[in-house]
Amino acid sequence: MMARGAVRDTARVLGYEYAIGDRISKLIPLGKQGFPMSIDKALNITPDLKQLYDTNADTKKIMSVARQIEGCARQISVHACGIVISPTTVNDFSPTQIEAGGDKIITQYEMHAAEDVGLIKYDILGIRNLSFLGQSILNVRKTRGIDINLRKLPLDDKKTFGMLSKGDTMGVFQLGSEGMTKWLKEMKPNRVEDLMVMVALYRPGPMDNISAYIDCKFGRKKPEYLHPNMEKFLSKTFGVLVYQDDILFIAIEIAGYNWVSVDKLRKAVGKKIPEEMSIQHKIFVNGCQQHSNMTKENAEKLWNLFEPFQGYGFNKAHAASYGMLSYRTAYMKANYPVEYMCALLTAESDDTEKITDGIAECRHLGIIVSSPNINLSKKGFEMEKNDKSLDKMSIRIGLSAIKNVGDIAIDMIIDEREKNGPYQSFTDFCLRVSGSKVNKRVLESLIKVGAFDTFAERNAILAGLDIIRSNIEKLSSKRLDGQFGLFDGHEDKDNSFIPLDKFPDVTPMTEKEKLSLEKQLLGVYVTENPISKMLEHFQGASLPKIKDLLDKPDNTVSKFTGIITKFKTILTKKDSSKMAFITLTDDTGSLEAVIFPKAFIQFENLLIENQAVYIEGKISNRNDEKSILIDSISLTLPENTKRFDFVINIPQSTSQSQLMDLNRLLKNNPNGHRGVIIMPTGKEITLPYGVKYNSDLQKEIDKILRS
Length: 707
Prior knowledge:
Radius of gyration: 31 Å
Shape: globular
Distance between the termini: 50 Å
Strand order of the largest sheet: 10-11-12-14-13
Structural class: alpha+beta
Helix content: 40-55%
Number of domains: 7
């Protein structure tokens, strides 16, 4: 039970009005992940709360009682992946019960008490990345005849580290988040140890040390050691405390701990036990002074370096396991991208958002993703030869990705195809695969996503569907009698009858309708990504793309365009005013945004899904995740906005040599197109010469900026 909850519950039980407990609890600041706020700490850092406590008897009574229940378990919850092991029946060590709403047996003791009574606790993590890592190896064996041994991968693969340094981390274990990608682009990892450091430090608390590690790695800063003997443990991490192991070795070497006493320190730090940390603090500081002749000031400084590890500090073995898995997934993606992305899409096929991200990444890599096809698609995502795609292989979307098409129907379709050959026409399909499992709803979904495009146009098939289905029985009976007059047909080489399709003349389905149905039934746009077209009326504006905003510092004023792809309206707790959380998307990525009540009132009528909008707001960087706090929304650009034939946004990590290469490329392609370069600072540089701008040149520009 956290501080705020303890205060609210205490006030309620003591019979006070809800508003009293609510008022006190709201004066208690929110803690950070891994660093919960306590009542005592809140009193020390919040003057208004301290004044209320000192002057109001009810407040003092409530908070005094709340202190006694703070930190206690309030209700039953189950660890997502925690199991306990005992030498005899678990009931010899702990009372047990059945979990609420389930059938699992759980301990009634919480995790610390369970360990204290002698149970061994394990966290068994089910990591999906292992599934598609394994599948990617099978895919490589299938496509290239190569057997990959993950234990024998070269650990200095330039292609792998180059990909990570550019920030191409989508689908890489532990490294795919926005914040992690930003740090990797700065770190430019070139050894597995760098990845170990990143997965260990990218946690609440130790995260503050990432910039120091990077500065020391590139010589911008010298490693600092509070005691010379620390260098032997910290030289590989440039003097930065990274692992829990570092704490243990330093405690033994500098503060005089032995392996028995240092285990108590490990538990205090690793299990986030405040009382034990307080005891260890005194032991450690005294030990540093007596064992290593450190000043008390330096001993305190060294202890303060330990405190962030009360968050989620990793031990080195944990970091090594994660770092190696990160490297292996990155290696497979960098060297076998089609096989890896196909495995990833298959593993994530039940998550529309991840499939959308995966297909976008395929486009970024140059991998063609093809629509479902009744004769080519299998159940999941599959690779197929395609000279126009990366590595001459594309990825075909499986039938299981289509809404309303169930497993039984898919199995019938594939089994019939494998048994009797490809379907020759839409009518042939209906004759061979019919019944309640492949009903009209299934057929309509298959038609709408283009599974029958090789036979006829989508609207034509939809228009003729009822007629064909109503005639199937007649055709089936006439086939038995040898009469084929109902539909024109022909015999193939083995004399079997192939019915031909006849459809009414109708207006073909528009590209916009196709895309809408793909999004509706597949959850993604396959034929093309319509975002660019939807933003066409903003084209040429000297504005940054969404991916460029991700490198901007906190509170940066930003102006950009995007599509409202998702929004959720909520009511504020304070006065039930409306506000909204919005997802904004352009052809480079997505960004979460918040519109607070004052702005919401003014712009509510513009909050429509798939609306193209111009946004002004400020960058917010909370928990290393970027969002935008919206000040204004418009359907048009401001009148004074400059327009150009093309805009080049320069990423934050671009080097001087890359800029020189870019300048050389543009000058070598002269013509009359006007362009502007937007630097990471937001400064606009209008090109003084015309450029022959086209899609091929843009690919060359992207190649330079990503190199």
